[in-house]
Specification:
The structure is a single chain. By secondary structure, the protein is α+β, with helices and mostly antiparallel strands. Helix content is 45%, strand content 17%. The chain is built from 5 helices and 5 strands, in the order αββαβββααα. A 5-stranded mixed sheet has the order 1-2-5-4-3, sandwiched between helices. A hairpin with a 6-residue loop joins β4 and β5. The relative contact order is 0.16.
Length: 174
């Protein structure tokens, strides 16, 4: 997979809305909420142009029954893909355009972590800029090595998650 990081694109909001509606139509009454997460959800943040979507559902086991419908709109169904309690779908193959991370409503830890990071970056543009610059630098350094790109972000992302969770729990110094 080629690693490309671009400037923030206002179209990402619309792309999320369009795809979220398709997912709502498939998941129906099983869906509780749907969130735009990841770097494309943070205005001004440089990002890989892949829209991350997080549906929250009543029963994660029922999501498997939507696999065929998700495939019909272009998704590859990946199951948990290394994260217990998640269903992961991706669209676009090597030129990925969307990723869907589905969690059950009582999975407060994973849902909370994703939302905390998004909201922290939205509220702390200086931190978001540092993150964007790191991603851009790594993409230039490792344009064809997604693993090296991910490894290069790992320490920063762990620190980001720690601060984001503290901040979301009321830490004003974070």
């Amino acid at each position: 997979m080629n690693v490309v990081v671009t400037e923030y694109n206002e179209d990402w909001k619309q792309k999320f809305s369009e795809e979220a509606q398709k997912i709502k139509n498939i998941f129906g009454d099983e869906l509780i909420d749907i969130h735009h997460i990841g770097s494309t959800s943070v205005p001004g943040l440089k990002a890989k142009p892949i829209i991350d979507i997080m549906p929250v559902v009543k029963d994660i086991e029922k999501v498997d029954s939507f696999n065929e419908q998700m495939e019909d709109i272009g998704y590859e169904c990946m199951g948990e893909l290394g994260m217990n309690g998640r269903r992961y779908f991706r669209k676009g193959g090597d030129n990925r355009t969307h990723q869907v991370h589905v969690f059950q409503r009582d999975n407060k830890e994973d849902i909370g972590r994703h939302l905390a990071v998004r909201d922290y970056l939205r509220a702390h543009p200086d931190y978001a800029n540092r993150y964007g610059d790191l991603k851009e630098s790594l993409a230039i350094q490792f344009p064809k090595d997604i693993e090296a790109y991910m490894d290069g972000k790992d320490a920063f992302v762990k620190e980001l998650e720690k601060y984001a969770l503290l901040w979301s729990n009321g830490c004003n110094e974070c």
